[in-house]
Design brief:
Aminopeptidase, alpha+beta, six-stranded mixed beta sheet, 6 strands, 145 residues
């Protein structure tokens, strides 16, 4: 992903049905996101089906010593519920294994039942629960690949 993908990413990230399930629910203006992206240089990847972008993967906390990485994915609302995430994750896991990663972690909010069901189907298990806000917890999930 590069800065030219900012509008697509923000279309997903700023959508009310996405923000509802994010730890940081702020709406981001394009210039704000571009500045953040240029300053932080995140390793994100646009995900496509037949050449059409439908989402993006986020990675963070890469640790070559422990062969671990944190991941996440956001999907455009128009493409949700079509089974694309499961397929994309399978490909992403193969790519991460090829890079030497063995341990994946992610965080999901407890009220995001759709994502939790997907992650559990992929083999992730809840390893930690911490308060987020109100009666919503943040769940750490892990998977050895």
């Amino acid at each position: 992903m590069d800065i030219s993908d900012a509008e697509f990413v923000l279309e997903i990230r700023n959508h009310e049905t996405t923000r509802l399930f994010l730890h940081d629910q702020r709406f981001f203006a394009k210039d704000e996101f571009v500045q953040w992206f240029q300053n932080n240089k995140p390793e994100w990847y646009i995900v496509r089906e037949d050449g059409t972008p439908f989402g993006y993967f986020r990675t963070s906390k890469r640790n070559e010593k422990s062969h671990s990485i944190w991941i996440g994915m956001d999907i455009h609302p128009d493409f949700r519920g079509k089974g694309l995430a499961k397929q994309a994750y399978a490909k992403f896991f193969r790519a991460l294994r090829a890079e030497g990663y063995e341990n994946l972690s992610l965080e999901v909010l407890s009220h995001n039942f759709v994502a939790r069901k997907l992650y559990q189907a992929l083999g992730f298990v809840i390893t930690e629960r911490s308060p987020h806000q109100g009666d919503i917890d943040s769940l750490r999930m892990e998977l050895a690949i």
